[in-house]
Each structure stands twice: as structure tokens, then as C-alpha cells.
Give the backbone structure.
Amino acid sequence: MKPDGYHVRLHPIFYLGKDKHSRHLVFAPVLWNFVDEEDVNTVVFPLWWSFRDLEHKQVDRGVFPLWWQFDDLKRSDFH
């Protein structure tokens, strides 16, 4: 039987994992990345964040403190 994924942990700073429906990468306290069938969320603290809701086609992004984007992309191409 094949495993569905893997998980690597170096507590408390590094976490990496993948399974059939999701994956994650954390390098605390700087990088957080979580991906599943409905969302793609990335934070590079303290400057960048990106939250994409694939189901509802919404995106929130920012480069602190210079730029913010909050969009509902239901009427446009969403990649």
C-alpha cells in the first residue's frame, strides 16, 4: 500500500507536509504556506500575505505597508 503523503517536522521552526488533498510549508516565524482544494494561503511575515479562496474566487493580498488588493474575481479569469 502506498502512503498518501508525508510530514516532516523540526519543532518549533520547520513543518512540511503533503497528503492527497492538501500541502503545507511552515518556516516559523517567517513563512507560512497552506494549499488545499479550496484555498491557497501564503504569508511571508511581516511584509507579504496572499489569501486566495478558489471556491468563491476571491483574493486578498498585500505588501505591508505599501499595497493591498481585495478582489472578488467571479467575473474575470481566476488562476
